[in-house]
Amino acid sequence: MPGTVLLLAASPVGRGRLVDAAGVLPVLAAVAPAVLSGTDTANVVELADPLEPQAVLTRLRAAAATPGPLTVYLTGQLHLDRRQHRPHLALARTTPATVRYTALPWHWIREELRLRSAADTALVVDLHADAEAWRHVTERGLDCGPHTAVYGRLAPPAGRRPAEPAYMKTVATLLRSGRRPALDTLHEQALSRIPQETRGNLLLAHAGGHAAPGPVPPARVAAAPAPWGPAAAAPGREAEPSVPAGGSGAPVPPAAPADPHAAISAAVRGGRHQEADGLAARYEEDAVRAHGAGSEQALHWREVRADLAMFAGDPARSCRAWLAVAEARLAAGQAADAPAVEAAVDRAHHQWGRIEDTARARELGPALAELRLRVPGRRSGALENIRRQLGRLQAAP
Predict the structure, then answer these.
(1) Given 19, 33, 108, 210, which is the most exposed site by the fewest CB atoms within 10 A?
(2) Contact, 191 vs 122, CB < 8 A?
């Protein structure tokens, strides 16, 4: 099956630039697509210093929805928005005062990749951070989601001149040999070539999960395992029943797949949408029994099922499911501008716009408009867009 590669290099124009991100693209572009992907053939999408976060999101969403392995090579810089203090990837127009509106929220990357399996999804990153973002990530980690393999480095603020993306250039140089080794091997090879450039960096090497913080020794960091992963059994003691990746929190049901997300992704790729939804429904039921209907574990599987409805070509069902997720999160006391709440309403809005059945769109529109009053999101004019569309639906026969 062909692979997909997304090459994303972004940094602000002008004095806010910490790294010459786009300078790595010619080196990466010289690598054969199949080598970048690690597959027989691959499609490559290149984004150089993009301007708009929504444009990046659209490309990322399309890449994440494409069957087959996905590798994202990401070079850029991290900042915190001043309102919520969450990491964002700076884009060309980003300034310290406009991070919330002109940069790509890091949790958007996590959200778009969360339905995929770590077996076929990887982030290779060369990131630089300003002082605030560096403190945040070294204290709290960089959440890339439980189903994405992550390799690379995060560097602290450097001098006055933009830094070089030395890690990514080294990775690209290694790949120009004509083959792609396992990513953990590629990561180690790259670090061995540039020990001085990565001294004091936070080095990320995870087969899938949360890029957890830890002490930063002079040479490299061996990061902690994902907090929701099964712990290794002590010598002479059997391991406890494993927990499915993504954290349903309930023991895996007998005969159930070891990695339900991989099994679900395989079913979707094979067009077996009912099978995929049935498997997700089983895990949702287990999570509800173990933790309650409003728990994060149960909400995770409701979100999975909302996306599965989208993949099955049923935008009305997907919209309804996302509306229910947003309502559940708000009812649990989550803030209207919490990333998970905003993401749920945004996805409901997106799916509502794809409903072709006038009656069903008319039915769901008022509930979406009411939610938009409470959760306006980051895009101006979202509520007005719903009201205009509702007006056209009401006028339709």
Answers:
(1) 33
(2) no
Q: Which tokens belong to 151?
A: 């390799």
For 374, the enclosing helix (H) or strand (E) is helix 358-374
Place of tokens 């149960």: 298
Looking at residue 227, what is its pLDDT?
24
Q: Which residues contact 157 (CB under 8 A, 6 or more apart)?
A: 18, 128, 129, 130, 131, 134
- State the number of CA atoms in the 13 A half-sphere of 239 facing the CB: 9
Q: Is the same domain home to 196 and 268?
A: no
Q: What is the pLDDT of residue 281?
A: 94
Q: Do β-strands 149-155 and 104-105 pair in parallel, antiparallel, or remain unpaired?
A: unpaired
| pLDDT reading at 96 higher than 80 | yes
Same domain, residue pair 201 and 314:
no
SS3 call for 105 = strand
pLDDT digits (tens, 9 = 90+) for 338-373: 888 888 998 899 899 899 999 999 999 999 999 999
| 23 DSSP 8-state letter | G
d(CA 372, CA 356): 21
Across-strand partners of 4?
43, 70
Kindly state the tokens that stand for 240: 């406890």
Range of the domain at 101: 3-206
Question: What crossing angle do the helices spanning 106-113 and 339-352 adopt, rounded to 10°?
Answer: 60
Residue 68: CA count within 13 A, CB half-sphere: 17
DSSP state of 246: T
Residues in Cβ contact with 261 at an 8 Å cutoff, skipping those fewer than 6 apart: 115, 116, 117, 147, 244, 245, 246, 304
Which residue, among 326, 245, 242, 310, has the nearest Cα to 276 in the 3D structure?
310
CB atoms closer than 10 angstroms to residue 312: 17
In 10 A of CB 258, how many CB atoms? 10
What is the model's pLDDT at position 315? 92
Considering the domain architecture, whether residues 63 and 166 belong to the same structural domain is answered as yes
Yes or no: say if 127 and 76 are a contact pair by the CB < 8 Å rule: yes
